[in-house]
Amino acid sequence: MQRYARPFALAFLALTLTTAGCATIAAVVALRAVEFALGRVTGGLLAGVDLDRYRAGGSLNPVDAGRVALAIGRGELPLSFTLNVEATNPSDNPAAQLVGLDYTLFLEGRETISGVVNDDRTIQPGATTSIPISMQLDLVQFFGTNARDLTNLALNLAGAGGSPTNIRLEAQPRINTEFGQIRYPGRISISSNVGR
């Protein structure tokens, strides 16, 4: 009787690993069909200046322009905002599970910050799910100290300027499997002209 225990255990283990492997492949395939796009930028703050107040257009008022000038004088210009990534699952695709994103942010073709979002989402068939990503960076570090250029970049990014900002996210989704979290094979480039 004991003679059959080991082959049975090995067969059971092989079946378990095969089933788990199939589930992993299915999860990757389901996520592969999901279309990612960049949505609106919200909650923009430039050196403490609320950029949403300028969505109607125009340049910064003297007080806010002074805040920006003081920050640049200190050798910094902190910008924070929320970038909303929209994930759309086709109606003929099964539910797709996403537990996080590793990302790198590009502004006007320039690589800036990288980060990780841990946000467990199930994207149902035929539905669009928004994944908000909080961003914080110092514009001086990446774009120099020209106050007008930096202000225009921030206003355009927030949809308050006259022209769109070219923004791209290089992302690598993560999914849950029987073996724990795994990264999607390859990176996804999600680009848009934000601020139209």
Question: Mind sketching the topology for me?
Answer:
Layout: H1 5-32, E1 35-46, E2 49-50, H2 62-73, E3 78-88, E4 96-107, E5 110-123, E6 128-138, H3 139-143, H4 147-157, E7 165-177, E8 180-183, E9 188-194
Number of helices: 4
* Strand residue content: 35-45%
* Main sheet: strands, sense, barrel: 5 strands, antiparallel
Order of helices and strands: HEEHEEEEHHEEE
> What quaternary form is this?
single chain
How far is it from the N-terminal to the C-terminal residue, by CA? 73 Å
Helix percentage:
25-40%
Q: Which structural class matches the secondary elements?
A: alpha+beta
Q: Work out the radius of gyration.
A: 23 Å
Unreliable sequence segments: 1-20
Task: Tell me what you see in this structure.
The chain has helices spanning 5-32, 62-73, 139-143, 147-157; strands at residues 35-46, 49-50, 78-88, 96-107, 110-123, 128-138, 165-177, 180-183, 188-194. With 196 residues, the chain is of the alpha+beta class. It has one domain. Strands 4, 5, 7, 8 and 9 form a five-stranded antiparallel sheet that branches. A hairpin with a 2-residue loop joins strand 7 and strand 8. It is elongated.
Short summary of the structure?
With 196 residues, the chain is α+β, with helices and mostly antiparallel strands.
Question: What descriptors fit this protein?
Answer:
disordered N terminus, single chain, alpha+beta, 4 helices
